[in-house]
Amino acid sequence: TISIPEQITNNIEYIKSFEFEGKTVTVTWKSDKTTSISNFGIVKQGYNDELVKLTATFTCEEETFTKVYEVIVPAIPVEVRFEKSLKEIEIPAEVSGNIDLLTSFYDEEMKATWVSSHPAIISNTGVYSSPKEHTIVTLTVKLEVGGNTMEKTYEVKTFADPKTVDVNHHL
């Protein structure tokens, strides 16, 4: 008998044939959800758990028998989704112009909101205004997907525009 685990996260190496009572039995496989498990056994996790029916057709000489196996391909863990989305964010250490604060990602269900510690210098949408003095701005991104949230902060140095520096303040 062929056994298939109830839950699968790695590719499956389908059995293609075996010997039974001195005869060769060939097996062909078909998945009802090829985006989760291909007919070749390639497993791809999505954003939701997926119940997949794998149909094995056994053929020996003139006889054919079919068996359906139900398998769950679990969703990508939310921590992995957060990690992948964070890798898409590129915040420079020093800023002297507008910056791109991502609000959408390759993971289309992932959403982001930004909060700036100094919105008059770097707004919550990344619009830059030169400060009167060098300032470190903290940008906090809040990622949300499927009711789960996480936050990460970035510190960015901003520099005063030489034309707006108070010369008397530095004397």
What report would you give on this structure?
This protein is mostly beta strands. 6% of the residues lie in helices and 38% in strands. The chain contains one helix and eight strands, in the order ββββαββββ. Strands 1-2-3-4 form a four-stranded antiparallel beta sheet, with no helix packed on it. The protein has a four-stranded mixed beta sheet with strand order 5-8-7-6. Strand 3 and strand 4 form a beta hairpin. The longest helix has 11 residues.
Give the number of helices.
1
Strand sequence of the main sheet, in spatial order? 1-2-3-4
Number of strands: 8
Report how far apart the termini are.
Answer: 87 Å
Helix fraction bin: under 10%
Helix and strand string, N-terminal first?
Answer: EEEEHEEEE
Backbone CA Rg: 28 Å
Instruction: Categorize the overall geometry.
Output: rod-shaped
Question: What structural keywords apply?
Answer:
171 residues; mainly beta; four-stranded antiparallel beta sheet; four-stranded mixed beta sheet; 38% strand; rod-shaped
Brief overview, please?
The protein contains 1 helix and 8 strands; from the N terminus they run ββββαββββ. The chain has 171 residues and is mostly beta strands.
Any chance you could write out the topology, listing elements then pairs?
Elements (H helix, E strand, L loop, with lengths): L16 E4 L2 E9 L18 E11 L2 E11 L4 H11 L5 E2 L15 E6 L18 E11 L2 E11 L13
